[in-house]
């Protein structure tokens, strides 16, 4: 016996304790366990219960309550389990799942049957939906009226059902998500295809069962003369299981069924040649066939569906995206709201306007694009972030003999074929029996006409119908059915013309009987009848396929549609980013002053500028040690004058997080590395392939210690040198091979040792050529050949790169430069000056430097941005600044040698344009 009043009963009301104790009493004993009462108290409590609920002496009246009912004792857990199982089975078998034979749930079947029985057929006038709903609820479906009406509404919607079964008149909702009008305002009747599901229902083709109150009968399943489960599909959620069957084209489904009848061993690939996949009411495009094949073979599969779109050009030179078909079950109104939200949040750039131009002729959702925006990029983002691309999770679950089963395509078709064989067989038997009965009557008529005088004499001389019937049976051997028909025969049947009609009808019946008997004797002929009837249905109601199926798999990126072209990517010191097609500059005539590169704020300068293909990745490393990844074509397109878009609108930066470094690359090779430097002097080298992954909220690039932050990230190759400088005026140079490669989520090793409050300013990569430019907080700077710096082991304190004095302030910035560079020097107070490197004094390593800019009291230099200003005629692969070993001119040279300068390829002229005002 399970004890329901064990631990935890303290503090419980005594009456409740006694009731729970009695509920858990074993059926074979009269003892009740009460942990808070002794034996005497139990007997006293029993007396109280007897007084409340009636006698409990276990006599003839045991268990009777005051109303005459009998109390049944049951263990609570067992009762809950049993009740839930019964509820679950009811939901599974009688509510949520379709029958594999007719593809209908009980509510659908009852609506169609009730409308048919009430005469609300296609050849009659529409009838109020409220009347139909009442008919269904009152006779067959004892549930809420809204459930029945919502189901009927869906059966009338062209965008919900591939072949609608209800002909609605009035407002039955739309694809925007607007609901149907109330049932008292709309009218409906059966659609013509629905009649093919109900045809031959009165010919004993299916079994019937009592309705919910036993006063009427309803069909267990409909005859269904076309494979409705595939044609309209089904969606339903039961208890512990769900079904999601895709709709298909009626003509294709019929032909696939006929093919399986002719070829019982047909494979899925053979069937897919006839029925290549789902055909959704709203059209759209299915990406690839792998998901379709998987669902047909196993019953489960993932099918990617995209909206159908095309690009139109306007007279003003702008482009627009036009969507004419959207995925199945997508709410167009909700879709528009989602697109508007993404545009407002700047997660999708380049959209200027959106409007719905849909009419009764078809859907048309127009998205206007800004000038210069590549339509395929916006389309790619719309597919990525909205329901313009969805996944249909096929789960072909249906009831087979009352048991839920996940079915393959062949199984669904075979169960339907078996059902049709049963339907046609039962119908043929019904027709045969009816024809035989009629022929039997006609044979009696002919025999009576042959002896009409004697028959009339017997009838006239008989006192009653019973006597006449008995004498006719005794004289001519008529059956009771024949004598009844003869007695009711009218006198006009005695004419010779009527005799000819009877003989002709009898001959026709004998021919039909022979046909029915032959049909029942040969199953292959029954299958032939099934094929002929299905094809007749398809001929009358099938239409063209709406959904296009492409051979491109779902993981095919729209990037393949984007031209692989070079872009100028600029990132400002305050975190604004944009990309500009190189052609936008090449199309301009360059004058003496060049073209305007960008309208920046007074306190902003271009910090990073490089040429990269639209198909390349851009890795954004933040000062918090995280890395975010975007494709170049995902960056916002700007004009030459535009400042760009704030990076916080593109990446999910936290408060205080900002860009520390940027790397662009097309691939992530195993033989190349990234070198990291932090403000506390730590360095780390990690293979680039470790960063060939992305997440929306970024991934860890380096494991920072408390109080530390990331300064620089640079690509490094074998043989490169690392230069690090500190605010104390010291610099160290060591070989990259002194830093052992480690994993992504590591802290690295000591690169430079510092004393006091000194911090690392940055890190540069060099091959030993060029010069190191340094500047202090008070504006004193110089450039020194790299060759003047000795190479040390990592972890040392380095050597002085400039003589430090109190009036100069701490060292503020450092850059490796060449004659082709220009420098932007930025102060904390937003003062910016621009100077060419060849105009900066070149001095020894431990010299004091010269005053490069006057810094106001209370202000200080905070950063230096490097740009390329020289021209280079020859073209070479684009290389981002800071991502290759800098190959700079030797000290003292003014004109750079093409072989000894930083190579940024065909971006030189473009970058110079941006620098010219």
Overview of this structure, please?
There is one protein chain. The chain has 917 residues and is an alpha+beta fold. It folds into five domains: 14-73, no CATH class; 104-223, Topoisomerase II, domain 5, CATH 3.90.199.10; 308-387, Gyrase A, domain 2 (2-Layer Sandwich), CATH 3.30.1360.40; 426-537, Topoisomerase, domain 3 (Orthogonal Bundle); 563-915, Neuraminidase. 30% of the residues lie in helices and 22% in strands. The chain is built from 21 helices and 40 strands. It has a four-stranded mixed sheet. A hairpin with a 3-residue loop joins strand 29 and strand 30 (730-735). Helix 16 (465-476) crosses helix 17 (480-487). The protein is elongated. The termini are far apart. Residues 1-13, 15-20, 22-59, 586-598, 870-910 and 913-917 have low confidence and may be disordered.
Percent of residues in helices: 25-40%
The low-confidence runs, each spanning 5 or more residues with pLDDT under 50, are 1-13, 15-20, 22-59, 586-598, 870-910, 913-917
Overall tally of structural domains: 5
Distance between the termini: 93 Å
Overall morphology:
elongated
CATH-scheme architecture of the largest domain:
6 Propeller
Mean pLDDT: 83
Strand order of the largest sheet: 14-9-8-17
Largest sheet: 4 strands, mixed
The CATH homologous superfamily name of the largest domain equals DNA gyrase/topoisomerase IV, subunit A, C-terminal
Mind telling me the CATH class of the largest domain?
Answer: Mainly Beta
Predict the CATH topology of the largest domain. Neuraminidase
Strand content: 15-25%
